[in-house]
Amino acid sequence: MHEFDWSSIPNALPFLWEGMKISLNITVSAVIFGIVWGTLLALMRLSPIKPLSWFAAGYVNLFRAIPLVMVLLWFFLIVPHLLESLFGFPRGSDMRLSSAIAGFALFEAAYYSEIIRAGIQSVPKGQMGAASALGMTYGQAMRLVVLPQAFRNMVPLLLTQGIILFQDTSLVYVSALADFFGAAYKVGDRDGRLVELLLFAGAVYFVICFTASRIVRHYQNKLKTA
Amino acid sequence: MITMNKVSKHYGSFQVLADCTTQVHKGEVIVVCGPSGSGKSTLIKCVNGLEPFQSGEIIVNGVSVGDPKTNLSKLRSTVGMVFQNFELFPHMSIIDNLAIAQTKVLGRTQEQAREKGFKLLDRVGLRAQAEKYPGQLSGGQQQRVAIARALAMDPICMLFDEPTSALDPEMVNEVLDVMTELAQEGMTMMCVTHEMGFAKRVASRVIFMDQGRIVEDDSKEAFFEHARSERAQQFLAKILHH
Ligand SMILES: Nc1ncnc2c1ncn2[C@@H]1O[C@H](COP(=O)(O)OP(=O)(O)OP(=O)(O)O)[C@@H](O)[C@H]1O
Ligand SMILES: [Mg+2]
């Protein structure tokens, strides 16, 4: 029977916290970029201009059909080279964080765009009509009238997707980037306490995600009664 | 002010509007009525280009609606429209509902827009509700706000699409009163409505539509006393019984 020994955790907390910061950084950046790019994709998908709509549909279907870990791997392998040759970044500079964020953002945008598209379509058609009748352009009507209502209905879904994304950030281990999971793994490996560290990391993920989904559910109920 | 010449529209093989021709002069109040699905909403939505049409011509204040070169947004900002379901913006306060298009479309300052908004809310008797949200108001109040919102743009004419048909009966009159007052002040209006009392009081002319055609287009006296078509007579007999 395995003897549990938690003693290596307290000393490792600062290092683990550095890892948590990387996880949060990736999550927040990818959520923001993903929502912005996802919104643009949703608008393209709904646009009457066929090539735009085809492009968006193709993008979404492509990214939803390949595993996230593969997208991340491609980004680690390809993006640094691309940036080096395109912008003359010095060879060997650490692009792992940026390529992780880029990979997650582009991948998540495909999911966000479907949520946002449904959100836009859930706003009654008459709202666009009323905004247009007041002389607003299509862009103004979208920006001032339709999207704010769409987002208000979508916030719970977008946040839930963000929680999933937070869990998925652990996949950056493929690039040896020390996110929270990676940091925990390293400490456990070094001290020969892998089981304890991974149990601890799991507990932390659970507490954060569980709390966050509780908050989302609370917000959702408030929306319903409003 | 509004001229329609042989306006036709179809969805596939289904004809929604067929050769609709009529004119609305400055200061006239036109009531449009007819059975459900006869094309009334479509007709008035063509006037501000909210619905495209395939053939014919509509001229509003000298501007051709169907011309691809026409700036439709600009045209629409001069034509007020009121919908059956109010279509207030639920995420904005009442006063913001009145101010948003004034600032974003007409380029007025926030102060000018709010001042104008308050004046119009006063006029429809809802000044006290300015900071509330649409969901907190009754249907009748929301529709009066929607009228005020359209008026805030200083429109040259107003279009109404069944403005009272989604309202509880006891709220119909507060909305009709605002419309009557507007008519008496000389606003040019096209109203789709089945409120025949309103038509008798303020209409200059009545248009009766059936299956996408303008079947009757006559003074209200002529329409109510001796409608020519059988369809209109049947329609009137049914509606006046209520
Ligand atoms: N997008 C569409 N595609 C196909 N047919 C349509 C479409 N929109 C409207 N129609 C049809 O066009 C006809 C006219 O519609 P419209 O809404 O103008 O009628 P209406 O006279 O306003 O009726 P109501 O009194 O019910 O409001 C209806 O038969 C309707 O089914
Ligand atoms: Mg209608």
From TrEMBL, chain A:
<dbReference type="Pfam" id="PF00528">
    <property type="entry name" value="BPD_transp_1"/>
</dbReference>
<feature type="domain" description="ABC transmembrane type-1">
    <location>
        <begin position="20"/>
        <end position="216"/>
    </location>
</feature>
<dbReference type="GO" id="GO:0006865">
    <property type="term" value="P:amino acid transport"/>
</dbReference>
<keyword id="KW-1003">Cell membrane</keyword>
<dbReference type="InterPro" id="IPR010065">
    <property type="entry name" value="AA_ABC_transptr_permease_3TM"/>
</dbReference>
<keyword id="KW-0029">Amino-acid transport</keyword>
<feature type="transmembrane region" description="Helical">
    <location>
        <begin position="197"/>
        <end position="216"/>
    </location>
</feature>
<dbReference type="InterPro" id="IPR043429">
    <property type="entry name" value="ArtM/GltK/GlnP/TcyL/YhdX-like"/>
</dbReference>
<protein>
    <recommendedName>
        <fullName>Glutamate/aspartate import permease protein GltK</fullName>
    </recommendedName>
</protein>
<keyword id="KW-0472">Membrane</keyword>
<comment type="function">
    <text>Part of the ABC transporter complex GltIJKL involved in glutamate and aspartate uptake. Probably responsible for the translocation of the substrate across the membrane.</text>
</comment>
<dbReference type="GO" id="GO:0022857">
    <property type="term" value="F:transmembrane transporter activity"/>
</dbReference>
<comment type="subunit">
    <text>The complex is composed of two ATP-binding proteins (GltL), two transmembrane proteins (GltJ and GltK) and a solute-binding protein (GltI).</text>
</comment>
<keyword id="KW-0813">Transport</keyword>
<dbReference type="InterPro" id="IPR000515">
    <property type="entry name" value="MetI-like"/>
</dbReference>
<dbReference type="InterPro" id="IPR035906">
    <property type="entry name" value="MetI-like_sf"/>
</dbReference>
<keyword id="KW-0812">Transmembrane</keyword>
<feature type="transmembrane region" description="Helical">
    <location>
        <begin position="22"/>
        <end position="44"/>
    </location>
</feature>
<comment type="similarity">
    <text>Belongs to the binding-protein-dependent transport system permease family. HisMQ subfamily.</text>
</comment>
<feature type="transmembrane region" description="Helical">
    <location>
        <begin position="56"/>
        <end position="77"/>
    </location>
</feature>
<keyword id="KW-1133">Transmembrane helix</keyword>
<dbReference type="GO" id="GO:0043190">
    <property type="term" value="C:ATP-binding cassette (ABC) transporter complex"/>
</dbReference>
TrEMBL record, chain B:
<dbReference type="GO" id="GO:0015424">
    <property type="term" value="F:ABC-type amino acid transporter activity"/>
</dbReference>
<comment type="similarity">
    <text>Belongs to the ABC transporter superfamily.</text>
</comment>
<dbReference type="InterPro" id="IPR017871">
    <property type="entry name" value="ABC_transporter-like_CS"/>
</dbReference>
<dbReference type="GO" id="GO:0005524">
    <property type="term" value="F:ATP binding"/>
</dbReference>
<dbReference type="InterPro" id="IPR030679">
    <property type="entry name" value="ABC_ATPase_HisP-typ"/>
</dbReference>
<dbReference type="InterPro" id="IPR003593">
    <property type="entry name" value="AAA+_ATPase"/>
</dbReference>
<feature type="domain" description="ABC transporter">
    <location>
        <begin position="2"/>
        <end position="236"/>
    </location>
</feature>
<keyword id="KW-0067">ATP-binding</keyword>
<keyword id="KW-0029">Amino-acid transport</keyword>
<dbReference type="GO" id="GO:0016887">
    <property type="term" value="F:ATP hydrolysis activity"/>
</dbReference>
<dbReference type="GO" id="GO:0005886">
    <property type="term" value="C:plasma membrane"/>
</dbReference>
<keyword id="KW-0547">Nucleotide-binding</keyword>
<keyword id="KW-0472">Membrane</keyword>
<keyword id="KW-1003">Cell membrane</keyword>
<dbReference type="InterPro" id="IPR003439">
    <property type="entry name" value="ABC_transporter-like_ATP-bd"/>
</dbReference>
<dbReference type="InterPro" id="IPR050086">
    <property type="entry name" value="MetN_ABC_transporter-like"/>
</dbReference>
<dbReference type="InterPro" id="IPR027417">
    <property type="entry name" value="P-loop_NTPase"/>
</dbReference>
<dbReference type="Pfam" id="PF00005">
    <property type="entry name" value="ABC_tran"/>
</dbReference>
<keyword id="KW-0813">Transport</keyword>
<protein>
    <submittedName>
        <fullName>Glutamine transport ATP-binding protein GlnQ</fullName>
    </submittedName>
</protein>
